[in-house]
């Protein structure tokens, strides 16, 4: 297991769940699947505390458990990648906001925060919350509809439940057909009995289906890629292809089933904003199909032709691009050129590298070996058949193992995340005094305002923060924003690289 | 590489047809031939071509130049005689044979020693002697500085030895290549932009964006940035660097030649390289403890204060 990933995981657990959970989580990360008494032995925490921590981890689905051989003891396993998903929450929330609006956004936010909830309770909770925020036009039926759309669009999913509780270690199950079946929410019941509990759906819990979000993210990457490489119309075309793909293809297959072009053409004709795509439809199809990337290929001529999307291939190419960009930024354009040359030739010796990349011998050698040292390139030594002595007895071929490089970059991403987090923490500690002061002033001014203080009094309070302090605060604020943004952007890279690995 | 060497051998063959005719003519006239003779016997030859060949022959010793009555004559000199150099002893013959086998790629002195089993002083003497007799020559190789290779005197060194147009006295002209590469890229992108401006649908735009190496060659020649004459093959290898930089793509046209076009990437630059850590040269040594750590990192501080 990756050390860097472990550090990030510990950090996230510490920040969101506190030191106890962090210790249990870190132990499970380091030692893998383990039963309670082992955790006790190594962490030296009191049993109730460990149980509490495990309960939290299980609740947030970061830890799963399975019975041991004779069904008496549960073994706990931590899922580090799930912990990492915490960083992606803002993205998920934003996606839902864009697609379903503000109310759905709040629903998702609440469920993310609690990990799982029954439909009735979350609807009631959101209703109260929005009303408090003076969003008076919110209604229970509207919220219920929002919730149901999230379920039918598979963004929410049924939580497995315990069927037979005679076992020492419960086994949780859920039937496939129940996963996306809308819950029975009785609006009447909710409105007449908002305090009650014990609603019709009281044992039906819902949680967030991250996979569904990742599918959206994947599609968006594809559409953006085609937009960037060709233009918006090409992007729209791919968007429609993906949409039609889902009618007949499992979302995570390597290659989509053939999609009839006529269907797409029909859709384009109906959309007023796609005029340009409509008039040049065949040309766009041609250009994309003939492109050397070969991600969308014709699979049949029948009824106007049909096309397949090569998803696995797409993310392999994207991974290449990312790696190439990293080489470019980490080294220079010459190194990137060498890297791409090795990629195109698969195996190549150093003489050919300098010749074809047109880089002076010395520089080419230096760069090649730098790339080798940082594991972007690999070397294969081939002995010459004639066993002479001297420098020519063997020659070296350079090549690239993409999967290795991707894993290495992923590692670098984790390290970067960790560095960003610890730097943020550090800045917070260093500036603790002033941040605290600001917070105090803010609370005072809020409470004074609610007591009806005059503008003058409020200004006096504000003045407790001196201009130089204000300046520092602004600087900290800027820094934190920057760190947060870049953290999300690094996560984008992680997503892309993981996508490549998922398809392998 | 394959393509450029092909072009070169083709060119050599073409010339040799002419050379043969000229050789025939000279061999049959032991007294020597004048320019007028040549014009009479081989009328379909252009003057510059002729001068080229004659110059070459003069240089490699196939022809001798002499003057009678204010007129220039060329006389054929049998090169096979050269091998039977007067006073050539066995060692010289052995070394000559080894060098001859190496062809126009030449052979390194160490390898000659291994193959000939002569000791260094002996070998040096032989080489010196062959060199002064203009039977062999030493050529500096570009692949390793200070490394000399030997080949027969009248051979044109292979481009792997001289490096071709990109070398000036064994030095690779890196900047020159960079400038050319940039210009080629510029040409392709401008061509693309123009076709986008002209419009007419994506297919037309794409097809109009393609350029052949000849087009680019013409453009570069007209720019006049190069003071050595560049061949189309030279431009072809420059264009390949643009392809390698992921700024262009290359496809094979129906007639077998290459077409080039500027391209975009699929992805914007990844988030990882926007951080200092993603491009940090000492990332491997950066940890929680020690001098290099995220809290005290100056790269990071600079980036935060930007
Ligand atoms: S924190 Fe600084 S030293 Fe460490 S990896 Fe990042 S940039 Fe490099």
UniProtKB/TrEMBL annotation, chain A:
Q: Name one GO molecular function term.
A: single-stranded DNA binding
How far does the signal peptide extend, from start to end residue? none
**InterPro entries from the UniProt entry:** POLR3C_WHD (IPR055207), RNA_pol_III_RPC82-rel_HTH (IPR013197), RNA_pol_III_Rpc82_C (IPR008806), RPC3 (IPR039748), WH-like_DNA-bd_sf (IPR036388)
Instruction: Please report the stretch or stretches of sequence annotated as the RNA polymerase III Rpc82 C -terminal domain.
Output: 200-316
UniProt domain RNA polymerase III subunit RPC82-related helix-turn-helix: residue ranges: 8-67
At the top level, the lineage of the source is Eukaryota
What compartments host this protein? Answer: Nucleus
| Keyword annotations | DNA-directed RNA polymerase, Nucleus, Transcription
Q: Name one GO cellular component term.
A: RNA polymerase III complex
One GO BP on record is:
DNA-templated transcription
Domain DNA-directed RNA polymerase III subunit RPC3 winged-helix: where?
323-400
- Tell me, how does this one assemble? Component of the RNA polymerase III (Pol III) complex consisting of 17 subunits.
Tell me the function of this protein. Answer: DNA-dependent RNA polymerase catalyzes the transcription of DNA into RNA using the four ribonucleoside triphosphates as substrates. Specific core component of RNA polymerase III which synthesizes small RNAs, such as 5S rRNA and tRNAs.
The Swiss-Prot or TrEMBL record describes its family as follows: Belongs to the eukaryotic RPC3/POLR3C RNA polymerase subunit family.
Q: What is this protein called?
A: DNA-directed RNA polymerase III subunit RPC3
- Please report the organism this UniProt entry assigns to the protein: Callosobruchus maculatus (Southern cowpea weevil)
Which lineage ranks, top first, belong to the organism behind this chain? Answer: Eukaryota, Metazoa, Ecdysozoa, Arthropoda, Hexapoda
TrEMBL record, chain B:
Q: Which InterPro entries match?
A: RNA_pol_Rpc34, RNA_pol_Rpc34-like, WH-like_DNA-bd_sf, WH_DNA-bd_sf
Record keywords: DNA-directed RNA polymerase, Nucleus, Transcription
Q: Per the UniProt record, which residue ranges are transmembrane?
A: none
Q: Which Pfam family would be a valid example here?
A: RNA_pol_Rpc34
Q: Where in the cell is it found?
A: Nucleus
Q: What is the name listed in the Swiss-Prot or TrEMBL entry for this protein?
A: DNA-directed RNA polymerase III subunit RPC6
According to its UniProt entry, what is the function of this protein? DNA-dependent RNA polymerase catalyzes the transcription of DNA into RNA using the four ribonucleoside triphosphates as substrates. Specific peripheric component of RNA polymerase III which synthesizes small RNAs, such as 5S rRNA and tRNAs.
């Amino acid at each position: 297991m990756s050390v860097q990933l472990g550090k990030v995981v510990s950090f996230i657990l510490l920040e969101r769940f506190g030191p106890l959970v962090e210790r249990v989580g870190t132990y499970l990360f380091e030692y893998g699947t383990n039963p309670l008494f082992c955790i006790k032995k190594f962490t030296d925490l009191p049993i109730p505390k460990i149980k509490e921590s495990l309960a939290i981890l299980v609740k947030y689905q970061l830890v799963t458990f399975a019975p041991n051989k004779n069904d008496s003891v549960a073994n706990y396993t931590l899922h580090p990648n799930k912990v990492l998903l915490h960083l992606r929450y803002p993205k998920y929330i934003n996606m839902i906001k864009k697609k379903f609006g503000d109310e759905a956004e709040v629903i998702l936010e609440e469920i993310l925060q609690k990990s799982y909830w029954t439909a009735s309770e979350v609807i009631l909770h959101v209703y109260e919350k929005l009303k408090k925020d003076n969003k008076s036009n919110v209604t229970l039926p509207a919220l219920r509809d929002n919730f149901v759309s999230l379920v039918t669009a598979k963004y929410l999913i049924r939580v497995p439940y315990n069927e037979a509780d005679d076992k020492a270690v419960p086994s949780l199950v859920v039937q496939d057909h129940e996963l996306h079946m809308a819950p029975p929410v009785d609006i009447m019941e909710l409105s007449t009995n908002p305090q009650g509990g014990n609603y019709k759906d009281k044992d039906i819990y819902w949680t967030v289906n991250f996979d569904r979000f990742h599918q959206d993210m994947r599609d968006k990457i594809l559409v953006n890629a085609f937009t960037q490489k060709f233009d918006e119309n090409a992007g729209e075309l791919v968007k429609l292809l993906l949409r039609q793909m889902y009618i007949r293809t499992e979302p995570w297959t390597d290659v989509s089933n053939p999609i009839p072009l006529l269907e797409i053409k029909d859709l384009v004709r109906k959309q007023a904003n796609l005029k340009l795509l409509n008039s040049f439809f065949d040309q766009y199809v041609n250009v994309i199909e003939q492109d050397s990337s070969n991600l969308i290929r014709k699979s049949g001529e029948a009824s106007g032709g049909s096309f397949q999307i090569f998803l696995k291939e797409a993310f392999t190419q994207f991974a290449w691009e990312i790696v190439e960009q990293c080489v470019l930024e980490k080294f220079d354009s010459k190194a990137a050129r060498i890297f791409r040359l090795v990629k195109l030739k698969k195996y190549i010796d150093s003489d050919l590298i300098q010749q074809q990349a047109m880089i002076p011998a010395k520089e080419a050698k230096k760069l090649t070996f730098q790339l080798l040292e940082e594991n972007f390139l690999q070397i294969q030594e081939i002995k010459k058949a004639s066993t002479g002595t001297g420098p020519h007895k063997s020659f070296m071929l350079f090549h690239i193992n993409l999967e290795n490089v991707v894993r290495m970059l992923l590692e670098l991403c984790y390290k970067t995340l960790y560095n960003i987090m610890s730097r943020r923490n550090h800045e917070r500690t260093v500036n603790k005094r002033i941040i605290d002061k600001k917070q105090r002033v803010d609370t005072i001014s809020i409470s004074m305002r609610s007591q009806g203080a005059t503008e003058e009094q409020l200004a006096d309070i504000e003045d407790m923060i001196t201009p130089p302090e204000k300046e520092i605060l602004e600087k900290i604020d800027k820094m934190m924003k920057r760190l947060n943004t870049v953290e999300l952007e690094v996560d984008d890279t992680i997503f892309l690289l993981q996508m490549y690995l998922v398809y392998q | 590489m394959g393509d450029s060497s092909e072009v070169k051998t083709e060119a050599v063959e073409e010339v040799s047809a002419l050379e043969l005719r000229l050789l025939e003519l000279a061999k049959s006239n032991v007294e020597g031939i004048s320019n007028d003779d040549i014009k009479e016997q081989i009328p379909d030859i252009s003057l510059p071509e002729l001068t080229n060949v004659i110059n070459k022959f003069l240089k490699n010793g196939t022809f001798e130049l002499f003057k009678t009555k204010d007129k220039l004559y060329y006389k054929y000199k049998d090169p096979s005689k050269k091998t039977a150099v007067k006073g050539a002893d066995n060692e010289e013959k052995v070394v000559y044979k080894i060098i001859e086998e190496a062809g126009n790629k030449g052979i390194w002195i160490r390898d000659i020693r291994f193959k000939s089993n002569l000791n260094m002083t002996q070998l040096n003497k032989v080489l010196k002697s062959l060199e002064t007799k203009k039977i062999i020559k030493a050529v500096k190789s570009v692949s390793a500085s200070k490394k000399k290779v030997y080949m027969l005197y009248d051979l044109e060194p292979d481009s792997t030895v001289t490096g071709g147009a990109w070398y000036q006295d064994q030095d690779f002209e890196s900047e020159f290549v960079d400038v050319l590469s940039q210009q080629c890229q510029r040409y392709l992108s401008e061509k693309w932009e123009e076709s986008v401006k002209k419009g007419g649908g994506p297919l037309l735009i794409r097809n109009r964006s393609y350029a052949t190496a000849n087009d680019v060659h013409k453009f570069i020649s007209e720019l006049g940035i190069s003071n050595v004459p560049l061949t189309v093959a030279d431009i072809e290898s420059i264009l390949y660097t643009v392809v390698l930089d992921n700024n262009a793509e290359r496809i094979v046209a129906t007639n077998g030649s290459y077409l080039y076009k500027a391209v975009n990437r699929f992805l914007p630059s990844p988030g990882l390289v926007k951080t200092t850590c993603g491009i940090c040269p000492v990332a491997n040594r950066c940890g929680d403890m020690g001098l290099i750590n995220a809290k005290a990192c100056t790269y990071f501080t600079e980036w935060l204060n930007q």
